[in-house]
Amino acid sequence: MKRIYLDYAATTPTDQRVLKAMEPYWNEKFGNPSSIHSYGQETKEAVESARNHVAALISAAPSEIVFTSGGTEADNTAIKSTGFTLREKGNHIITTAIEHHAVLHACQFMESQGFDVTYLPAETSGFVNISDVQRAIKEETILISIMHANNEVGTIQPIAEIGALAKERSILFHTDAVQTCGHMKIDVNQANIDLLSLSAHKFYGPKGVGALYIREGTPFIPFMDGGAQELGRRSSTHNVPGIVGLGKAAEIAMEEMAPEHQRIRTLRDRLLEGIQRNIDKVYLNGHPEKRLDNNVHLSIENVEGEALLINLDMEGIAGSSGSACSSGSMEPSHVMTALGIPPELARGSLRLTLGRFSTEDEIDRTVDALTRVVQHLRSLSPF
Questions:
Q1: pLDDT at 329
Q2: Are residues 248 and 261 both part of a single domain?
Q3: Is 181 part of the annotated catalytic residue set?
């Protein structure tokens, strides 16, 4: 049985072209980029080439890209470094109740340090209302951190409007773009973004490497102390193979984003239409239009999510109920709760996310398998 992977929002397989680009930097080209000899200069050149590709992906300057260990470090750095740098100016941070835990937990830490954090609600569709952002702004507001797209339900937020509002009020704006970078066109200048987080493994690069965009002139203190790497902004010996992989993944994304956008959307619509045609009492979560091209997040009546995932896995299909970072919990996710989804529906949630290697045949097989699984589980349900 050929297995079907539909959990691309959790992680993506590393593209073979990315692996090939990384390969020499494990052994043959192993120098430390901080060294002045030829070994070091060879890898430094590779790091800077990757920086150029990542910068081009979001229309930034290469000097504004800081390599990190991933999205979580980038989110934490953006929030904590900005907060402590601007503490004398103000102590108020605005975020939303549906952010990734990397942002929510960082904000909770800031509260323990005396900061005031406003957690904005979202509409049932997962959309954050601009008027709510505007009303939340205070004289003491120093940072707005709102994700580009939700990792569970896929709703895309109006970051350009939020960025314009933040700029007008001289407030820094950070966005967690882990789910969108490499999949959607992002221009940090047009959207007035001051800080942006991204992660390689979400767009066919390796795990354990990401980047934080820091607009030139943004007040900033290093998150970690040590050496002077990354122009003194992030100490630690460079993960050269990972950074090279991130750069190559960014280069490929730039070249293939437009045609992939339409292909994935067509497959997503085929999947959703097939499910809704064959299974009753199924509800799409997230905004019906302003959503990620690859995301289908459903609530299915009279079905328990964990049983659904186990049975799908037995059929050879890998999906999820939400964020991989929260798997193992029997309770509805914080996103489902914040959106006001009834607990009985939230516990029957299913997230299927498509990617570069998804095919029509896989979509059709998934519809058939899901139909069988739901029928079987409902036959066992007392409801």
A1: 53
A2: no
A3: no
